[in-house]
Design goal:
single chain; mainly alpha; Helix Hairpins; about 0% strand
């Protein structure tokens, strides 16, 4: 039987993977993927705790996080496509040249 602990351990592992991805970022697209992993791990935690306490608050909060993440990805991917067309790569180190 799957318990709350299993869900929270899975959420923790995903959160650690997302944090490692954000820290070791070299590519902007991978940075977006790591951020999505972070948000989804929090959603797993919210949904699991919400189910455990029989309260829909956590599930509704997870739904709003998914909606915000979808809009973030839509805007972010648009900016990434524009950046790739101008520079030819998605390395974070080239962002230093944005101000010039």
């Amino acid at each position: 039987m799957i318990t709350l602990t299993h869900y929270l351990i899975t959420a923790t592992i995903l959160f650690v993977v997302g944090v490692i991805g954000v820290i070791r970022r070299k590519n902007l697209l991978l940075l977006f993927f790591s951020t999505e992993i972070l948000l989804n791990s929090v959603n797993i935690g919210f949904a699991a705790i919400s189910k455990y306490y029989n309260d829909l608050g956590g599930q509704m909060f997870a739904f709003f996080i998914i909606a915000i993440a979808a809009s973030e990805v839509a805007v972010g991917l648009g900016l990434l496509i524009l950046w790739y067309k101008r520079r030819g790569n998605l390395d974070i180190d080239t962002l230093q040249t944005m101000h010039s």
